[in-house]
Amino acid sequence: MNRRDFLMTGSALAVFPRTGFAAAPFLLRAEPVTAQILPLGDGATVMLGFNGSTPGPEMRARQGDTLRVTFENGIDQDSAVHWHGIRLNNAMDGVPGMTQPPVLPGTTFDYAFKVPDAGTYWYHSHNRSWEQVARGLYGPLIIEEDAPPDVDHDITVQIDDWRLSEIGEQVGGYENLHDWSHAGRMGNFARAVFDDSITLRHGDRVRLRLINVATARVFPIEVTGVAGKAVALDGMPLAAPEDIGQITLAPAQRMDIIADVTAQGGVGFVFQTRQGPYDLGIIPVDGTHPAPRQSDIAALAPNRMPPPDVENAISLDLRMEGGAMSSVATREAIWLFNGQSGMSDDPFYIFERGQTARVTVRNDTRFAHGIHLHGHHFHEVQPDGSLGHYRDTTLIGPDETRDILCVFDNPGQWLMHCHMLGHQAAGMKTWFKVL
Ligand code: C2O
Ligand code: CU
Description:
Blueprint: E1 18-20, E2 26-35, E3 45-50, E4 58-62, E5 66-73, E6 81-84, E7 108-114, E8 119-125, H1 129-132, E9 138-144, E10 153-162, H2 177-181, E11 189-193, E12 200-202, E13 205-212, E14 219-224, E15 226-233, E16 236-243, E17 247-249, E18 254-261, E19 266-273, E20 276-288, E21 314-322, E22 335-337, E23 350-351, E24 355-363, E25 369-373, E26 378-381, E27 387-391, E28 393-396, E29 401-408, E30 412-418, H3 421-425, E31 429-434
Parallel strand pairs: 1-4, 2-5, 4-9, 10-13, 12-20, 21-24, 23-31
Antiparallel strand pairs: 2-3, 5-7, 6-8, 8-9, 10-11, 13-18, 14-17, 14-19, 15-16, 15-18, 19-20, 21-22, 24-29, 25-28, 25-30, 26-27, 26-29, 30-31
């Protein structure tokens, strides 16, 4: 942590255009941008972004809508857009070489897909993602409920870190093998990015949509100045709202909170580092709500999920190996799933459509990993065997083992990979097929 770490303010990178979607096609153009990531007065950073900003515009649609996006590639590398957490039609999943051809520089690709689930999702490049996401190619994708909860403000909070020089240039070396074989590319500067035109009042009820958009860092976060509940994880509503406590978000994970503002000064996002609290940003509070809501914070309406067939679930194993301090890792095969580094011709498994599987995910490495399944959400199985929350990305610590239970009901070819994107690049990925 250096000098700048203590100079942070709550100002956001940009005010995001809030785009109403309905059925209208939307042009999303990847292009070089300049962003004020460091506090004003420090140097600006040359990044990649969408439609002039990084993060890209906040896209909003209503549950059940068909989202139509023309992606235009204005950068000098191939690219493609993945809609993280959306249980969509396989052909629209945005994985070059698997679900679509890469989108060459100067060309376009039309995405059109139905959004079945309400919640907090995001979009990001899925080509050279370890570099393109680190350089800024991501943004929020919010799917609104038919009857959204009654709040004064609905605020998306993207949490990221960047590796910057003293003058604000992004430090290169996206393929640094030391990063890849350890915890990934960590930034030296972190912040929460949100619409900095918002001022809250004491007593306001807010919905906070936290998204960890970092390529590698697991963020332990505390939200200060509010009293409320967690209501959703990875987009999916919790059966009942839960106490917030200390939040841990792996890369790509999300948490929705509904809370009342109790602070007079500001609502803060604090990253709890080993060296102490690090201020990620503050939403100012000014004034008082004349008639604060008295109602309890209720659960969000559930999304329609396929019921798991627990009795007849098949059992599968996914073993993670490799990385620094591992005897099996080599330069060419740093991370492995079940002894295989990188994509194989044969899938991890071919599922009958609708089949339920219990996958025992075992972390035989010295590092944490956030395992993401495309096109599906799954239950984290609790130590007592009960079905825990739905997630699309599960964080598994060193030497930890967790079962996940998933109904594989979305036909197509899907990736399963570590969302520490350097780990993915260095082999921690595979694919499965649903017939
Ligand atoms: Cu969020 Cu395969 O990615
Ligand atoms: Cu990993």
